[in-house]
Amino acid sequence: MTPFRPQSLLPTHEVTNQPEPLTDYNLFDSDLAFAETVKRLGDADTVRRVRAYGAALGRDEILAAGDLANRETPELVAFDRFGRRLDEVRFHPSYHRLMSLGMEHGQHSIAWTAEAHGHLSHCALEYLMHQVEAGVCCPLSMTYAGLPALKANPALYETWAPKLLSRTYDPAFRPVADKAGATMGMAMTEKQGGSDVRANATRATHVKGETYELVGHKWFCSAPMSDAFLTLAYTDAGLTCFFVPRWTEARERNRLFIQRLKDKLGNKANASSEIEYHGAEAIRVGAEGRGIQTIIQMVHHTRVDTTVGAASLMRAALVQALHFTAQRSAFQKRLIDQPLMQAVLADLALETEAAMLLAFRIAQAFDAAEAGNAQEKAFSRIGVAIAKYWLNKRVVGVVHEAMEAHGGSGFVEDGPMARLYREAPLNGIWEGAGNVICLDVLRALDKDAEAKDALVEQLKAACGHDRRLDAQVDRVIALASNRAALEVNARRLVEETALVLQADLMMRHAPAALADAFLASRLDEANWGHAFGTLPPGLDLRAIVERAQPVL
């Protein structure tokens, strides 16, 4: 059925030369490079489930729900009308609809339930949802990531895993035994410490068995309506990981109090909060004093989602720019056919495809690690940090250029670009800002011999195919060898390493026109300017743009 369009004839003029909205399309089938990657790395079941999700998310009403969930933001209801403490967050129905769709398709659980390619499937579903509404990806991601950490307490895992793996979304606020499905969050950072979690002040007092009481605060607790959280607190033995349910074993509201919701730049649909534990009931996960080692499993898995999220936002922004410029004309020619605009769009397309390939190379490593491949497991530890850092440094510029391609209409809240732009910085901050991530890479190179060896093997595999790529590997080796300036050069080292990985992937899996353009620009600083749209001459820009065009 042809969608309803408002009349363009107004009392003073007729509306012409304006694009139709991009709606009712399959986000999987329309993305040629992404579809190729899923087919190459996965199997028929993977393709089937990702295609189905792409069709569901591309429906007009779901795209509208993503917009509405960000306009009708969450509300903290601290008390009921009689003054009793509630500490509940209320969401617009559009948020619940998207959460329900995500859990129905297993975005939070498929990594742990699929017979094969579970992490690939999870990341592919994440990649699609993030283009529609990034906020709901937070609770879905934390639920996915929390499960491996929870295994450090087998009894707790046995009780909670069936509800956390359930594909039924149950937003009701009640004990987990009474629910059809559950979600899990995380609360680690505190005001005085931030990323330095060893500076935490929250204390845990032993009650009995594995049960403790927590007193303290958490500066950031996203998705506070989750059914439980992993958190850190000090015992006499040191920093320890705890599981904090919203309801106690006695079926009472736990003493976890929401102080306020954060007024964030973006990610508006997702509630982020400050909380206090005032005698909150908590269950120890892992050994006392081993909290960081326990919760790092959750951090490791959420980092892959922050990597995929950056690649996804690039694609979402590029699609909007391509759609707009293909329908908008200036000076008797479509914008997309104007040489200068074509150079910008081609540059964005190169960045976007390389980002997607790197993100899914990391997903591939996660699957291989799950299957027992020790080298890939080691590579996943350092590779996810490298990819997270680099893609999240690139995404903000990509979204900005895509917004600029719209002209003034990209800068208003009626369209999608303003929301994408506000969202772009988030994943670079969540789960470790840039400096923290780069220091993690240095730490892995210094203390994790297996991760270092796995990365070296990746660098070796990239050599011998192109002189530009060989020279890039040499730059990485030179930076890594300068021990005296290693920390101050950490960002440069991670950046140059990421470019090796991306260039190698582009040579292996992208068409020759794209691979050559990527190497000619990204690996030769004299050939590329400081902004997008400054590619070297002689490239097949039209072929690059046409590959990126959404197939409708």
Major sheet characteristics: 7 strands, mixed
Structural category is alpha+beta
Mean pLDDT: 96
Topology order in helix (H) and strand (E) letters: HHHEEHHHHHEEEEEEEHEEHHHHHHHHHH
Distance between the termini: 16 Å
| Global geometry | globular
Rg? 24 Å
Continuous helix count: 19
Fraction in helix: 40-55%
- Uncertain runs are none
Question: How much of the polypeptide forms β-strand, as a percent range?
Answer: 5-15%
Number of strands: 11
Question: How is the secondary structure organized here?
Answer:
Layout: H1 32-41, H2 44-57, H3 60-71, E1 75-79, E2 85-90, H4 93-104, H5 110-113, H6 118-132, H7 137-150, H8 154-164, E3 184-187, E4 203-208, E5 211-222, E6 228-235, E7 238-245, E8 256-261, E9 272-285, H9 291-327, E10 329-330, E11 333-334, H10 339-370, H11 374-404, H12 417-423, H13 426-429, H14 434-447, H15 449-462, H16 467-481, H17 490-509, H18 512-522, H19 541-548
Parallel strand pairs: 3-6
Antiparallel strand pairs: 1-2, 4-5, 5-9, 6-7, 7-9, 8-9, 10-11
Notable characteristics:
seven-stranded mixed β-sheet, 52% helix, alpha+beta, two-stranded antiparallel ribbon, single chain, 552 residues
Description:
With 552 residues, the chain is of the alpha+beta class. The chain contains 19 helices and eleven strands. The protein has helices at 32-41, 44-57, 60-71, 93-104, 110-113, 118-132, 137-150, 154-164, 291-327, 339-370, 374-404, 417-423, 426-429, 434-447, 449-462, 467-481, 490-509, 512-522, 541-548, and strands at 75-79, 85-90, 184-187, 203-208, 211-222, 228-235, 238-245, 256-261, 272-285, 329-330, 333-334. The strands form three sheets. Strands 3, 4, 5, 6, 7, 8 and 9 form a seven-stranded mixed beta sheet that branches. A two-stranded antiparallel ribbon has the order 1-2. Strand 10 and strand 11 form a beta hairpin. 50% of the residues are buried.
